[in-house]
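Homework help board

Subject: predicted structure for assignment chain

Our instructor gave us this sequence and asked us to write out the predicted structure in token form, then describe one feature. I got the tokens but I'm not sure how to describe them. Can anyone check?
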Amino acid sequence: MLNEELLTRFKTEADVSKFLNQLPVLLLEKMLEEEMDARLGYGKNSIAGNNTGNSRKRSERFRYRGRDA
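My token output:
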């Protein structure tokens, strides 16, 4: 499901390589966000969790460092 807009971003082989190296990290972060949404029962930045004792407390963004960190 690659679209033309995405493909036009790659000008060099290095661009493609950088994207492919970042892809597992981006996918893992998205999966973790979706898992948190499912576990808590509401999406990020939703007011549903306010004052329930079941809210997201982390103010900084979690970053999976990957293999190179």
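Reply (TA_rk): Your tokens look well-formed. For the description, you could write something like this. The radius of gyration is 16 Å. That's the kind of observation they're looking for.
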